[in-house]
Amino acid sequence: MANKEKQTPDIAAGFTKEQFLGSRQWTGTDKDVLSVVLKEGKTYTLAEAKSLVDEFKNGEVKG
């Protein structure tokens, strides 16, 4: 019998801005933030996207 490796999804896989904006995982407000902080043509992990949203929400207002 051959050992078969279990296939697990790559949770560090990158997603595009369009994929994040089309996802039902994010709320309307978070999608608005994602549309500002994510760059076109670049991929992000879920952790990176969440971090960018959190940084944006916790940032100081410039006057």
Q: What percent strand? A: under 5%
- Low-pLDDT runs of 5+ residues are none
Biggest sheet architecture: none
Helix proportion range: 40-55%
Shape: globular
Question: What's the β-strand tally?
Answer: 0
* Backbone structural class: mainly alpha
CA-CA gap between termini: 68 Å
DSSP helical segment count? 3
* Average residue pLDDT: 85
Q: What is the H-and-E element order?
A: HHH
What is the rounded Rg? 16 Å
Describe it for me?
This protein has 63 residues and is an all-alpha fold. The chain is built from three helices and no strands. The longest helix has 13 residues. It is globular and about 35 Å long.
Question: What labels describe this entry?
Answer:
single chain; about 60 residues; mainly alpha; about 0% strand
In short:
The chain is an all-alpha fold.
Layout: helices, strands, pairs:
Elements: H1 17-22, H2 28-37, H3 46-58
